[in-house]
């Protein structure tokens, strides 16, 4: 197989073009199935076709560009939908790098490479439904029932395909491996001055909705020692659990109380109810289990000591995912070759389509730095030199695997 080189200027020009579809200020607003998202998918399909790739857009809206023939090939991609206020690189970068590597390989007779943009990675309707349906983790019928925040069903939204070809599915059997390159969306590489991250695993995520139940009463007439204040319960729980989780945490372990709803949330009423979510992430299932025990025990103790009720509503689980060891080694060698001493092995604290794809294909991911560690914001950015280097490292990985 001939080795081949990518054209990083062409890659960056395509990235700028994709950025212009749904551009707002320095960012992009291109949520899944929006008008901008549909136009971006049509543009991507055209770029794939111009490159000599065969385009398939499946029923949920994943866009594939396949090399001619039926030979097994490497699949490279990410997602082109964005958050309601998104950056220009989150997902788009990995899609365009996939396009450039597939295109350059086809032009120069290299290893066959296919590219993909998965649908709704950013969760307008559900958690990564595009890659979940493609990998068979969820049926299309199940996905169709999810609604966005306005009540629109995914099953309705996906039918708007004006300008797209008729739906055609692509079997996972066509591919030998999946590679995804993405901005880090965190501060590690930017802080250390390193330029490439080789992702060894994607963290597991557990999210639980809980409530403390007290007694709603008058905030002027109820003596402090007789109160059963649900907010004081939440306050006690959070400060206690912070200390206990810190004892089992690694530097990568994170936990967040991200949503709080006080009832009735009024100046002069002792809160009778505090509903909240707590989410914890780590790459090790055993540590996630230990954290679950600590969280439950602390909540129970809090409720007992403050004479409150405690309810929890079942844990939403996303298991940690390991990258494929052979692919990780190929990435480490390519990173050392092109960015000697300026790369590291690291976990991904964010969820990616690659986690789902790992259920059917060997998977690995690369990161490039995010300036200031910022993403999901119009300010999201990465140096163009880093974008070019990341693409070249991934191309070198393909050469090594080919
Ligand atoms: Zn992303």
Tell me what the structure shows.
- By secondary structure, the chain is an alpha+beta fold.
- It has 2 domains: 8-203 and 321-401, Aminopeptidase, CATH 3.40.630.10; 204-318, Alpha-Beta Plaits (2-Layer Sandwich), CATH 3.30.70.360.
- It has helices at residues 8-20, 35-50, 92-108, 129-134, 140-144, 154-157, 188-192, 230-248, 285-305, 325-338, 353-357, 384-401, and strands at residues 23-24, 27-28, 54-57, 63-66, 73-79, 113-118, 175-183, 196-202, 204-213, 217-218, 254-263, 269-270, 273-282, 309-318, 321-322, 343-348, 363-368.
- Strands 3, 4, 5, 6, 7, 8, 15, 16 and 17 form a 9-stranded mixed sheet that branches. Strands 11-13-9-14 form a 4-stranded antiparallel sheet. A two-stranded antiparallel sheet has the order 1-2.
- It contains 12 helices and 17 strands.
- The radius of gyration is 23 Å and the shape is elongated.
């Amino acid at each position: 197989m001939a080795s081949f080189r990518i054209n990083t200027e062409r890659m960056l020009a395509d990235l700028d073009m994709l950025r212009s579809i749904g551009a707002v200020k320095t960012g992009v607003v291109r949520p899944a199935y929006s008008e901008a998202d549909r136009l971006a998918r049509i543009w991507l399909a055209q770029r794939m076709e111009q490159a000599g790739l065969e385009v398939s857009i499946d029923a949920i809206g994943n866009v594939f560009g396949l090399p001619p023939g039926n030979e097994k090939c490497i699949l490279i991609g990410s997602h082109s939908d964005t958050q309601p206020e998104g950056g220009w690189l989150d997902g788009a970068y990995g899609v365009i790098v996939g396009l450039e590597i597939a295109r350059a390989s086809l032009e120069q007779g290299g290893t066959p490479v296919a590219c993909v943009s998965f649908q709704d990675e950013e969760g307008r309707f559900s958690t990564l439904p595009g890659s979940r349906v493609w990998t068979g983790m969820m049926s299309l019928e199940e996905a169709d029932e999810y609604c966005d925040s306005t009540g629109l069903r995914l099953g309705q939204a996906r039918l708007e395909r004006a300008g797209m070809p008729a739906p055609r599915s692509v079997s996972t059997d066509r591919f030998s491996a999946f590679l995804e390159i993405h901005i880090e969306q965190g501060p590690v590489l930017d802080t250390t001055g390193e330029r490439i991250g080789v992702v060894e695993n994607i963290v597991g995520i557990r999210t639980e909705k809980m409530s403390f139940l007290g007694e709603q009463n008058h905030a002027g007439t109820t003596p402090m020692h007789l109160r059963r204040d649900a907010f004081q319960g939440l306050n006690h729980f959070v400060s206690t659990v912070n200390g206990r989780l810190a004892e089992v945490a690694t530097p990568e372990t994170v936990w967040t109380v991200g949503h709080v709803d006080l009832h009735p949330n009024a100046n002069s009423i002792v809160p009778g109810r505090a509903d909240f979510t707590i989410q914890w992430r780590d790459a090790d299932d055993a540590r996630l289990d230990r954290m679950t025990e600590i969280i439950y025990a602390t909540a129970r103790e809090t409720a007992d000591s403050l004479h409150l009720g405690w309810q929890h509503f079942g844990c939403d689980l996303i298991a940690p995912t390991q990258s494929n060891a052979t692919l990780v080694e190929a990435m480490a060698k390519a990173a050392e070759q092109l960015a000697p001493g300026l790369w590291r092995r690291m976990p991904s604290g964010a969820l990616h389509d690659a986690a789902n794809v790992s259920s059917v294909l060997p998977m690995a991911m690369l990161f490039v730095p995010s300036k200031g560690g910022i993403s999901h914001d119009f300010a999201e950015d990465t140096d163009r030199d880093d974008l070019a280097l990341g693409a070249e490292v991934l191309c070198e990985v393909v050469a090594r695997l080919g």
